[in-house]
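Structure first, sequence second, as always.
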C-alpha cells in the first residue's frame, strides 16, 4: 500500500490542528463549509456521523488539488438528555447550557471520517463527562473569558473549563474534537503514518 506523506484536514478548528500535530501527521487545511442543521428526528449519533462524512466528502470533491491524499473531517456533539447542545448563540444561551450541565454527566460524541480513493470510513468516539456544580455567577465569569463562545456545549475541556470536570470516562482528545485513537486507526488503514518527522 502506498504511504501518503500528508492528508487534508477539512476543518478550521485550531484544536484539531494541534491534535494532528501532536501525533506527527502532516496536513494541509481545506474548507468544507456546509449546513450543520440536524435533520428532523435525527439521533445525535447519526447527526455527528453524517456531518463528519459530509465534511470529508465536500473536502474531497471541492477543496483539494488533484493528488490522492485523503481528507480527514470530524464533528463533535455534546449530548444531554438525548439532545445536542450546539455552540451558544450568546451569553444567556451559554450560561443556560452550563447550568444544565452543572452537577450532571453528559455524553460527548465525536465522529471522524476519512475519505480516500478507496471510499469513506467513519469511526465514533463516545465519552462521558461529569461536571461539578456550577453557580450562575461562575458560569457568567467563564463566559467572560471568551472561551465558550464557539464551543459545542459552551465549554472547552482543554481550557478554563477543566476546573468544572469532576470525571471523564472515554477520550480526552475526543472531547476536544478529534479522538486520536480512532483517527490513528483510520489513517493507518489508509496508509498514512503517524510520528512523521
Amino acid at each position: 500500500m502506498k504511504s501518503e506523506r500528508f492528508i487534508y484536514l477539512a476543518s478550521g478548528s485550531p484544536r484539531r490542528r494541534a491534535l494532528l500535530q501532536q501525533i506527527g501527521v502532516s496536513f494541509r487545511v481545506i474548507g468544507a463549509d456546509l449546513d450543520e442543521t440536524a435533520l428532523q428526528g435525527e439521533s445525535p449519533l447519526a447527526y455527528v456521523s453524517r456531518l463528519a462524512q459530509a465534511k470529508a466528502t465536500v473536502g474531497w470533491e471541492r477543496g483539494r488539488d488533484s493528488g490522492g491524499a485523503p481528507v480527514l473531517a470530524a464533528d463533535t456533539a455534546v449530548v444531554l438528555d438525548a439532545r445536542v447542545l450546539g455552540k451558544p448563540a450568546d451569553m444567556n444561551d451559554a450560561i443556560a447550557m452550563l447550568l444544565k450541565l452543572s452537577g450532571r454527566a453528559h455524553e460527548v460524541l465525536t465522529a471522524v471520517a476519512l475519505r480516500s480513493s478507496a471510499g469513506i470510513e467513519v469511526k465514533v468516539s463516545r465519552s462521558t463527562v461529569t461536571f461539578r456544580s456550577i453557580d450562575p455567577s461562575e458560569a457568567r465569569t467563564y463566559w467572560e473569558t471568551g472561551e465558550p463562545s464557539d464551543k459545542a456545549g459552551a465549554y472547552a475541556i482543554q481550557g478554563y473549563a477543566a476546573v468544572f470536570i469532576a470525571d471523564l470516562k472515554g477520550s480526552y482528545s475526543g472531547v476536544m474534537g478529534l479522538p486520536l485513537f480512532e483517527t490513528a486507526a483510520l489513517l493507518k488503514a489508509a496508509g498514512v503514518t503517524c510520528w512523521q518527522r
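Margin note: The radius of gyration is 17 Å.
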